[in-house]
Specification:
CATH class of the largest domain: Mainly Beta
Strand order of the largest sheet: 2-9-8-4-5
Strand content: 35-45%
Number of domains: 2
Helix content: 10-25%
Distance between the termini: 70 Å
CATH architecture of the largest domain: Sandwich
Number of helices: 1
Radius of gyration: 21 Å
Length: 127
């Protein structure tokens, strides 16, 4: 291999490592859902009193939203989203009335403290 080809290969390899590093940094810069209560795909014997969503990094409650839809696909009225005391990664949404039997879908849209937006959804069932 010539010296010119060898230098080109080193430049390409270095560039590939740098691009991979930048991409992985971007992937880590979003608030991803890590925990949820009630847990996804579970069946509860009784109605929960709140929804609790834990994220991989802090979120901005003013720019974040958690919505609950009932078995009839209609939005269920909830209390306002708030952060857990001393933990800006934990969103708490109180349920103002007990949930009836059926499958519920939680949809969330959050903005992390660094300004990135993420969204997702999961379901649980009340017996």
């Amino acid at each position: 291999m010539s010296q010119k080809s060898s230098s080109l290969c080193r430049i390409l390899a270095t560039s590939a490592v740098l691009v991979a590093g930048l991409i992985s940094q971007q992937a880590l810069a979003h608030a991803h859902l890590k925990t949820e209560t009630p847990a996804a795909d579970t069946t509860l014997k009784a109605s929960p009193t709140e929804l609790s969503l834990g994220f991989s990094e802090g979120i901005e409650p003013s720019f974040s939203k958690v919505m609950l839809k009932g078995p009839d696909k209609k939005v269920v009225k909830t209390g306002a989203l708030a952060l857990a005391a001393n933990d800006n990664t934990q969103a708490i949404v109180p349920l103002t009335t007990p949930l009836g039997a059926g499958k519920y879908t939680v949809s969330w849209n959050v903005v992390s403290v660094d300004g990135h937006k993420t969204e997702g959804q999961y379901s649980f069932t009340v017996q």
